[in-house]
Amino acid sequence: MITAEAASESTVPAVPGDTAATGVPEREELVWPWKDAPIRELVQRIHQLQAERAQAFRRLEERSMRVQGLRAGAVALLQLMGTPELTGQEDSLQMHQLKMKVIKTMEAISEVLQDLRFDAESAE
């Protein structure tokens, strides 16, 4: 619940509207906090917001690449588990390649989990 005190401390001040001119009950208009700011400050703020956005997209791209790697490992593991001729050791080279792919994928999964754990701890 917002109290009158909390509303008065709001970062975006409210300006009462003109009831007589409109004939509509009084409604508060929000005032943009950067309205009277110098151009230099506005440009700096835009650069700051763009940098934050770029950083967020970089993180998204990194995580997307990790997920693609995990998916590739899962597919390799499913291939290993679902191919009956491989269980009979008929093609040891392909079996070895799939095992190596699974091992690399498990290592990648471990790294991703460590990174996510680190990100979660640093966010706190």
Kindly state the mean pLDDT as a whole number?
75
The Rg value, from CA coordinates, equals: 29 Å
Tell me the strand percentage band: under 5%
What is the count of DSSP helices, taking H or I runs of 4+ residues? 5
Task: Kindly report how far apart the N and C termini lie.
Answer: 26 Å
Helix content range of the residues, please? over 70%
Q: What is the general shape?
A: elongated
Biggest sheet strand order reads 1-2
H-E string = HEHEHHH
Q: Which structural class matches the secondary elements?
A: mainly alpha
Number of strands: 2
- Low-pLDDT regions: 1-19
How would you concisely characterize the structure shown here?
The protein has 124 residues and is mainly alpha-helical.
Walk me through what this model shows.
InterPro entries: REX1-B. The chain has 124 residues and is mainly alpha-helical. It has a domain at 39-123. The protein is built from five helices and two strands; from the N terminus they run H-E-H-E-H-H-H. It has a two-stranded antiparallel ribbon. The radius of gyration is 29 Å and the shape is elongated.
List the helices and strands and how they pair.
Blueprint: H1 4-8, E1 14-16, H2 19-22, E2 28-30, H3 39-82, H4 84-87, H5 92-123
Antiparallel strand pairs: 1-2
Helix pairs in contact: 3-5
